[in-house]
Amino acid sequence: QLRSGTARTIGLVVPDVGNPFFTDVARGVEAAASAAGHAVILCNSDESVARERGHVELLASQRVHGVLITPVQAGPVPLRQLQDRGISVVLLDHPTAEEDLCSVAVDDRHGGELAVTHLLAEGCERIVMVNGPAGIHQAAERHRGARDALRLAGRAPDVLEVLTAPALNVSCGLRAGEQLLARAVLPDAVFCANDLLALGLLQATVRAGVRVPEDLAIVGYDDIDFAAAAAVPLTSVRQPRHEIGRTAASLVIAETQSPEEHVHRHVVFTPELVVRESSRRP
Ligand code: RIB
What we know:
With 282 residues, this protein is α/β, with parallel strands linked by helices. The chain has 9 helices and 12 strands. The strands form 2 sheets. A 6-stranded parallel sheet has the order 2-1-3-4-5-11, with helices on both faces. It has a 6-stranded mixed sheet with strand order 7-6-8-9-10-12, with helices on both faces. Helix 4 (108-121) packs parallel to helix 5 (144-153). It is elongated, with a radius of gyration of 19 Å. Bound molecules: alpha-D-ribofuranose. Alpha-D-ribofuranose (RIB) is lined by residues 19, 21, 93, 144, 147, 168, 194, 196, 221-222, 239.
């Protein structure tokens, strides 16, 4: 039970605290928050809407200064109960046009274009994408999963096929890899919606004795630290994770320090492609 009236505190709600992407974002949040004398309460919704709702209700009851959240599902997250209590909200890691919210995101359409354009330039013609979960992830624009769809949208006509993973993690990447490697004919390349999927896919190629990139080129997304350290260093679309977290925390802190100047801001970072061995065709 947190002390009531926890004022100089920021709540951070993420869908998967085990994913290094969100760990790095949390470090950015904490760096900005502690510099401004704020503590951070980290909540893991574990991709569960029910758990997310519980975290939001707890943070609302504790009257924290602000809440940064990456929503799990499409549709309206019960943020009203925060805003009605004067608690500032910043949507993290996905864009929104909602005027009474702030958001910090990355241009995922451009990120997908960078990945596919690079593979085409390397001579890969038959490109398969391993994307995030369908269903919950194909809903409204505001939804994180729609972001995975945005990563495809940029160059969709150049992608031969999309495999849908149930979750954005290593084991789902391994299963997708086993599925692809069981086929008579391999694609030239696979573009994965995040690095954990790509690392699982890489694990499948090593087990099957398939050479990367000679037999199969691979590109991931996020550029977490494990990407460069992979058995075959992974090409990835880099998201500025620390900056995303720091910017989001700064937005909340600025708003609570001068609410009268409250300007809803929507910050969109530009991703960059980090090319490594996993996609450099000989
Ligand atoms: O790796 C987690 C993924 O979920 C990241 O790409 C982030 O952008 C979110 O979409």
